[in-house]
């Protein structure tokens, strides 16, 4: 059975795995974005605070993803919980770093002008600083998403959802008739999803970043 015949006979399962993979990455990216921006907002004004935030989230990425999932299994069990925890934690660094860099890069004159017209610190943050820092934050989100697309495949080790199940089944049965087809189907599916998500972020950037800031 060639690859295209394999896709034809397994298309329903592959579509289900693709949807679960995309859903897991999307939901974890929402959580990671909220946490990452919150950490960035709390720490960007302090030199040591920003360094601590970046160093801490960097340290998470030094832990091999397979080992991290293995350590979580005794604590939270199999399936969705370890997948959500791992993907959320691994997605933090680019968002936190870019949020801090973006907020620190806002022109102080604009912040002073906002202060001069009576804006509170919260309003300055929401109306001036975060909108101006949004381009680098969005770049961090894009980088995180590309990372998590691949890491999500490892979640199959803990019975997590997604296309990693195809890859693991293929690797576990190397030498059988469809082993290579399974690995290839899972891998190609992840690449296609990554490209689709990135295209969506490009569109989001065009809709949410003003031409003046892009220029």
Structural notes for this entry:
By secondary structure, the protein is mainly alpha-helical. It has a single domain, classed as MetI-like (MetI-like fold), CATH 1.10.3720. It is built from 10 helices and no strands. It has helices at 3-43, 47-61, 65-76, 80-90, 92-104, 108-116, 121-154, 164-172, 179-208, 211-214. Helix 1 (3-43) runs antiparallel to helix 7 (121-154), helix 3 packs across helix 4 (80-90) and helix 8 packs antiparallel against helix 9. It starts with a helix and ends with a helix. The mean pLDDT is 90.
Low-confidence stretches: none
CATH topology: MetI-like fold
| CATH architectural designation | Orthogonal Bundle
Total domain modules: 1
Q: What's the helix count?
A: 10
Task: Give the averaged pLDDT, no decimals.
Answer: 90
CATH superfamily: MetI-like
Helix content: over 70%
Could you give the distance between the termini?
A: 52 Å
Largest sheet: none
In the CATH hierarchy, what is the class?
Mainly Alpha
Number of strands: 0
Keywords: Membrane, Transmembrane, Transmembrane helix, Transport
Pfam families: BPD_transp_1 (PF00528)
GO biological process, one term: transmembrane transport
Transmembrane segments: 24-44, 51-73, 79-96, 132-159, 179-204
